[in-house]
Amino acid sequence: MRGCSAMIPALLGAVALAAAPGLPAQAHDPDIKVGGGGAFPKSWHVRTDRDKPSADVKFVAMGAGFHVTLGPAVVLWRDADRASGNYHVVATFTQTKNPRHPEGYGLVIGGNHLGDAKNRYTYFLVRGDGVFLVKRRIVGDSTAAVTPDWTASDAVNKADSAGRATNELSVAVQRGRASFLVNGKEVYAANARDLDTQGVVGYRVNHNLDVHLGALGIRTR
Question: Which of 25, 138, 149, 185 is the most exposed place for a label (fewest CB within 10 A)?
Fold first, then answer.
């Protein structure tokens, strides 16, 4: 009986640790190790969240687009892919495998200083469970919500039992309005002045995902 009593504080401590709201998600879902990573298509840049090792990022040209297999979450871009003024950017994404739990993938717009600690951008993601998110990276690892949270929409194609889902994401910036569309349907709109919209466009893919990235289409208006 004395032994059981001694175990109670330890068990309570373990429960409190598991429930602590400040613990990062990666503490419970660590980045996987990826073979064949670390070499990337010519002129493309890769930035991992929290400066995680890029050796665990496999990013290769495939067909008319690219394919990523991750460890850490990444932003992928080329300096030449810029959009300003009124524009429309679009790409198709195919999640190919079931992740351990739903994670997001999608577009980056308004990128500035992407390669250093002053990086800023707006990102627009979907997940395999049928939800979307718009958010801003404001400095370094700091972020600011645009949509209140992940939001369900019937415009987002959910993953099948094998984890496969294809979604077309696009952002249209025109006359001071930013419109976010999934498979051609607007799911959110905001005043462009409240977002980062002028700058580099590219991709963002969260950790531990395997995703095919269609080529970026950028049209100025």
Answer: 149
pTM of the predicted model, to two decimals?
0.87
The answer to whether residues 189 and 50 touch, using CB atoms and an 8 Å cutoff, is no
Domain range holding 195?
Answer: 28-220
Where the chain has pLDDT below 70, the residues are 1-27
The pLDDT value recorded for residue 16 is 40
- Quote the CA–CA distance of 92 and 96 in Å, as a whole number: 13
Beta-bridge mates of residue 107? 124, 203
Return the half-sphere exposure (C-beta side, CA atoms, 13 A cut-off) of residue 102.
Answer: 15
- Which pLDDT does position 27 carry in this prediction? 53
Classify residue 123: in a domain, yes or no: yes
156 lies in a domain? yes
Question: Residue 70: CB partners within 8 Å, gap ≥ 6?
Answer: 31, 32, 34, 56, 57, 58, 205, 206, 207, 208, 209, 210
List, in order, residues 6 or more apart from 13 with CB less than 8 Å away.
Answer: none
Return the H-helix or E-strand segment holding 163: none
The per-residue DSSP string of 29-72 comes to SPPPP-TT-S---TTEEEEEGGG--GGGEEEEEETTEEEEEESS
Inside any domain, residue 96: yes
Please give the distance of CA 85 from its chain centroid, rounded to a whole number: 24
